[in-house]
Each structure stands twice: as structure tokens, then as C-alpha cells.
Amino acid sequence: MKVLYGYKKAIVKFVGVMLAIMLALTCFTACVSTEKGYSGYGTDAGKNQSKVLRIFGTWTKTGIGTHYNCGADAGPFVIFGLEGLAQYVRTTDEIVMLLAESFTHEGNTTKVKLRDDAYWHDGEPVVSMDIIGCWYLNHDEATSYMESVTEIDDKNFLITWKSYLTPAESARDILLAQATKIGSTPYHIFKEFVDEAIELTNSLEQCPETSTSRNSSYFDKNWNGDAATAFGEIYTAYRAYEVDGVYPATGPYKLESYTETQMTLVKNENYYLADTCGFERIEVTYQPTAAVANQMLAAGQVDYVDGTPLQSVLESILQQNGSLVHYKILDQGTVGCLFNLEKEIWASDIVREAFQYVFDRELIKNTANPYAATSWHSMSTMCSYEAEKWLDPDDYDKLAEYYYDQSKAAELLEQAGWSKADGAWQDENGNKVSLTLGYVEGTPWTAMATTVQALLKSFGIEVILKSTESPTTLLANARITDSEYDFMLYFTALNPWGSHPGGAFKHMYSQMDAAMMHLPVNESDGHYSLVLNKADGSGTFRAWDVFERIYTYSGSRLREVTADLVVGFAEMNYGIDFYDNVTGSFFNLDTVGNLPLQELFSEDRNITTLYYYNDADYDNVQKLNLYYTQATSYSTGVIIPRG
Amino acid sequence: MENTEKTKAGFKELLVQTWSRIAKFFWDSRFFWKRLGIAIVNILFAVLLTFLVLTLTPTNAIDSYAQTLVEQRGISLDEARKLAVEILGYDPNANVFKQLWDYIVNLAHGNLGTSIYLKDVTANSVIAQFLPYTLFISAIALLVSFLLGINMGSNMAWKKSPAKETFLTSYIVTSSAVPDYLWGLILLYVFGCSLGWFPLNGARDITNGLPVVIDLLWHAALPVLSMVIVQTSSWALLMRGSAVSVLGEDYVNAARARGIPNRIIVRKYLRRNAMLPLVTQIAISFGAIFGGSTLIESIFSYPGLGLQLSTYIGARDYFVVVGILFFTSVIIIFANFVADSVYSFVDPRVRRDS
Prior knowledge:
The complex is a heterodimer of chains A (about 650) and B (about 350). Chain A has 3 domains: about 85-240, Dipeptide-binding Protein, Domain 1 (Dipeptide-binding Protein, domain 1, Alpha-Beta Complex); about 255-325 and about 590-640, 3-Layer(aba) Sandwich (D-Maltodextrin-Binding Protein, domain 2); about 330-580, Dipeptide-binding Protein, domain 3, CATH 3.10.105.10. Chain A is built from 23 helices and 23 strands.
């Protein structure tokens, strides 16, 4: 019995010691850094003598292929190794000239002059046919505005824009800068495919004036069934071609090696901006799960991570590692809900208006992303601060604001014939209202979905939540006829295409939202038939007609049509804006230099100040995001190692 | 003439004998053929079900690729979808049964499935590239947990010490109640993040200069440990149950009576006999490890087959998914088949009963 007692005591001791060790470890790691600020950034030496940048990235694990358009994804190498004629900085007006030295616009033509000192990674100079060939093989948005691209000489070429759809000069710069990976198809390697594609294009008839797809036709040609098939064959062969040698690229970093989980890039010493390019190497770890990524960040194993996690996670990471700073960055996106207009419930404009009052947007914002800025508008297809920039103040003020007022919502619903029985709302036909909400599983959507559900339940409407694994699946589920979703949580506005209203309308009308919302389509031309009121009240217009020509407008006319599209759409109450989204960037201050807002992070490394267009530090903060600038912040010396 | 008749009769007799021998062989081994038939039907069902379920799920490869084109080129979704069909040469609206038939024809040629996105990537190449990683960690985990488990189980059965019983039972309850991926996260936090003793992800670090084998083992340590913690308990429980029944056998009592040392009894009488049922179990477990542990591989970003499978499912790359599932199904079914067959030969009662 005594022996047994001794054993038990030993076990209790052992378990106690183990628990104490675990507790001590947890406390130690949690309390290792309680400093809110970071001192000595501008004065003391850093810890990155080897000038290495460590980041996360993703690529095709089975192999990145031998060229950009082969179908496999080279991930971080695409960002740091490939470039275009110019790079727009998303959310700012800045365009950084890269392979092109200049764009000269004259009439409906643009002359592009290439840099003399731009070379491919295999040592060959970059020539006009490299860019021309890439466009003829890889049709992008710019090519739907082009009539032709012709070589003047090795370093100059001429773009002729469609005479009936010539983009405004400022819009041309944006369109050209959107071809961010145009330097991916060297003519000396892909000559065979380029020549075939140009020959095919030139052999095609011009797109007829009566064609409903005339405005979007590449190089103004009639890409009918046979032409599309012939082009598909050329493209398939080009895609499958295996480059024997160096992966074609022109950018500041070369690919040194990669495995399934690691990639190493080294500085391209022949790069035309090599002098300002600070980091010698970039070491990329394949993006782990969020939990592990956070642990690696806290352990100081990466120098830069994009995004804003939940507030508690963010604060915990900053507390664990006193060298980390987190910036908040606007992303020109608004988060909210989109109504599925196929559903009977949304046919009533009074019901749509009533729903604007149902939600406590401040609560939703605080639950999902407390660093963001609450929006009080109905869905307007453009985030508030962007609308403020592109609309005249009088027009901006026409955007109605809706504050949390469930009694007002109830009043409107009763006006629409709805009634409430046993705490639950019934529609005008006496049917109990129950809605299905589609959303993408993950941050911030899950938190937002449960809050929306709770708010509607408290109001008397039951909500069934349906999550999907990705935006692609949400889109696919939403756009099918008789979709089960009554409404969806997603970006009600998003503009990742540079600072031009066209980007926001592109997201709305041709890429995501309109298809999810089932905007009515005109069967004769296949385009959306939505008719909106003009902002000045002078009449109506078809939204698609204006959207299709948005890049052709400039100056006051651009502001006018932008106001028409934004104010006109907001009046329809087709969705609800919850908040203007904010993303962010973590940096390790020990290893990364030249970072802005030193005076703020010396006090608190969780920088919560939001900078808008007119603020002095706006551009500096926006340029911190790798995905907004691609490699330009690193190649132009905006971000350097702290050694 | 007589000779010819005799020869004919002899030949007929030989034929009858041969046939009866063949028939007897098949009759005697009917258990084996029955199992083989079931295994083949299982494989066909596995292919059919995975293919149909995948094609019925929302979104397809065209949707996914179109979204990529939209992001890369700034074109409209409709344009991107048209382009995606041209580029990939895959029609998601094609008859599902025709797609399945084409797949089976390919399978007959040894091609487990070609990727819709990447024409030079096949299920065969994915398996060849990533299966070694999966086998490396899973096989080590299985072996270590098996050895630890049988040791623990036999000790629990042999020595009726209340203290040890309490400790081991607590361990078994705790370790089997907490899933391996949670153990993975705990280990990552303590040994990877807090103490920094082990890497947090990947299978190798090409920059650290360590010898390949050492580096591989170092990276595999935490994933293996998290699997071992959970698997050991189930082996220990199985072994304990088996060992308790062996302990009551006459030959063990006789060995004790003969004064054979306890360690010899445990090693040669107890463990060897108690392990028999576990051997068939390990054959089945060995088959199962070919599928990989998706969650563990995901947590440690370990480039194994399980993680690849989930990636290809996300991309709706049906043919590769079905190829990998077909491969793992065949291995698991084969392992079950072998285990069943071996057991039936070892223990005739199983044959008889079936």
C-alpha cells in the first residue's frame, strides 16, 4: 500500500513538473516582448548584414515549368523576376516605368520607347518584337482597345488604338501598365509561335460594326469559331513549349533554385536598376497554414508578411516579437452583401431599402476587421474614399447614408406588405421569410456571416449560412440559375487595377458582382440591360454602354459618367456596403530598412492610423504592399535591407 | 488399334484428373478468389464514385482557370471562360460517362490521369514526386508507434502495477482523444516556435548545409512525433488485449512453472504470440499510409501526397485526383486482401467460416 502511495505521489509530481514547464514556456513566449514601440530604428545598426529578404509564397509544387505562360505558377519568381513596360501602384496614381522608357501619345496612336539597358536573364537585349509578340499571343484587356501594334525598330514600336474606342491618354498609361508580365515571351525563343499568331491575326477580317462583341474584340478582328480554334492551337503549342535554358524574365531577381517548399532568388546584377536594388537574395518559404505562418512570423523567421489577421492574433504576434511592425493599408475594396436579384424578395424597392437599415454596420465592421472604416452607403460599386476622389462633392453627397435603425426597417417592410407574427417576419403572401446567405469560409467572412445571421435573427428573419471554400466556388454557386443563395457576402466594390474608375466597374460588370447578383441581361446583345438614373437627374442611361467606354473618357466627362454609374447604382439599393476594407503588412524592423512612420512605430508597433489620398504619407504606406507594387518597391530602393 | 484406344483412354483420364485438380485447386482456394473478386469490385466502385462525386461538385477546372486569366489579363469573366476552354481543351459540359470511359481507357494504358491544367503533369508523376515524402514520415511513424505500442501493451498486461496502469492508461486516453494535427500544432509551438529546436515547415532546407539524411530526419521529427503520439496508444491497447488472452494460455503457465526468467517469457512467449493478430493489422495500416496524412502534411507544409491531393481537389483537377485516389484505393484494398489471405492461410478457421 505504501509502495502504491509512493508511485502515485511520483506520478503527481511528474505531471506537476510537466505542467509547470509548459506553463513557464507559454508565459515566457507570451511575455518575452511587452514593448509596444521600437526604438533606435533610424540610429542603430540593423541585423541584416547578409541582405536577405525572407518571405512566404506559393508556386506549383510539381514544378514551375519553363516559362510564364506554360500554365504552371512560378509564384514569387513571377513577382520579383518578371515585369512589364510599366507597373502601376495599386491604389495610388503612380506608374513606375520599367521596360519602357516612355509612352508618347499622338492622336489614336502611342509610341513606346524601350530602355536601351534592358536585358533578358539569358543576356539577350529586350527588343520591340518581344513585347509585340507577347500581346499577339496573350490577349489582355489592352489588346481589346488596340487595332494593331507594329515594330518601328528594335527599341521602338507603335500602338494604333481602335478609332471608335480610343482610350483617353491617362487611361492608355493605365492599360499599358496593367500588362505587368508582358516581359515574358522573348522573340528569340518564341519566334515560331509569335509569327504564326501575327499572321493569323492579320489574316482575319475586321470585326463587323454590327457585332455585339466589337468593343471587346482583340485587335479589332472577327474572332469567330474557326479563328478561335486556330488561335487555340497556336496557343496550346506555345503553352506546351519547353524552354531549354534560363526561365525567360527580365526583372531584378533571377531564379537560383527551388524545391517543393523553398525558393531562392538572387539579385540580377545586369538589371538596369541594380544599383538601387538593396536585397542580394530573397528566400521564400512555401506558404504554410495561417497558424504556422503566424508562429514563424512571431519567431522572426520571415521579414515580410502581407495581410491583417484578427485583432487578437495580430496583437499576440506583435507582443511575442518586439521587432515586428504592422501597417494598415487601404485596398480599394468594400465589403458587404450582394442581393441575388433573381429572387422574388428583392423585386420590391421598399424591401431593398428596408434592409439597408437592418444591419448594425459598426458592429459588423468591429467583428470582422476593427481597423477598417465603416461605410454607410448602399452598394455603390466603388469604395467610399475612391468615390470621394472621383465624384464632384455635390454628386458624392447624393449617396444616401443608412444608419442602424431596425424600427425604420420594420416600418418600410410593413409598407411593403410584410407582417410580423410570433417574432418572425412574413412576406406579403404570408410566407415566413427565411434567407440563405453564401460566403467564403475564412477571415473575415465567417465572422461577418455569423454577425449578419445574429442581427437578422434578432430582427425576426432566419438565415441559413452556406459557406464555400473559395471565391471561385462562391461565384460559380451564385451565378447558376436558381442559385440557392438569396444574398452573398463579398466585395461590393474592388479595384485592383490602378487608380481609375474603370477598374471598379470592371470588377462589378464584367468580372464578379453582376454575375453573382443576376443583373438582368438583354437577350439581343447578351449584355446587362440595367438602366440607371443619371446623377444630375436629367434622364436615364444603360449602365453597360457607359461601362464599355469608360476608358475613353477623361477629365470632367470621366467624373460625370463615374458619378452617373455610382450614384445611379446606389439608388437601386441592390446591395449593402458594410465597410471599406483595410489590409496590412508586417515587417521585421531588425532586418528591413527605410520603412516609413518611424515616429509612430517608435510609440506603438501596431500602427492603426489610416492614410487617405490627400495625406502626405499615403503613397509611402501603400507602396509597402508587395502585391500593390510587385517588385518595384524593392528594385527602386523604397524598401532596403537594414544592415 | 487397341493401343490407340488405350492412349485415348489414358489421355481422357489424364484430362479428367487435370481438370479435377484444377477444380480442386480453385475449390480449395475459393476463399482467395472470392476475396480477389471483392477487391476488384471495390476498386471499380472507388473509381466510379470518386469520379462522379467530383464531377458533381460545384465549379470546375474551367471556372478556376478563368479566374486566373481574369486576374492576369484584366479581361471579362465571359472572355476568360471562352479562352480557358480554348487553352485547356477541356469541356466541363461533356458527357460524364464519356469522360469516365476515356479515363478508364487511359487507365488501361497505365496513365492514372493527366492534369487538366498542366499537360505534362500526370497522377503518375505526382505520385512519383510526392509519395516518397509521405512514405518517409508515415512509415517511420508506423514503425516507431508499433514497436512502442507492443512494448507498452505487453508491459501493461504483464506487470499489474497500479501506478504504471494509471500512468499508461492516462497517456492512452489523452493521446487518443486529441487528434494528431492538434498534437502537431502543440509540438510546433513548443519545439518549433518557442524553443526553436526543429524547423516549422517543409521537408528539407537547401540553405542550411546539413547532410541530406540528417536534414530530412530533422524536418520529419515533429510530424513523425505527432503521429507517433496518437498511433502508439491504439497499438498499445490492441497489444494489451491480445497479451492478456495469451497470458492465460497453458504454455505460458508451463514456462513460468519451469522457472524460465520473466524477460524471456515476455519476449519469447508473450510478445511473439500476442503480436500475431497485430501483424495483419499492420499490413492494413501500411496500406493506409500511402494516402498520406493531409492534415499533418498541411500543418507542417510537408510536401506529401495527402497535401497534393487536397490541392488538386481544390483546383478541380479531376483526373489527377481520381488517379491518386485510384492508386491509394488499390494499395489499401490490396493490403486488406493480403492481410485477409495471409490470415486465412495461417488460421484455417477463417477459411472454413467464410
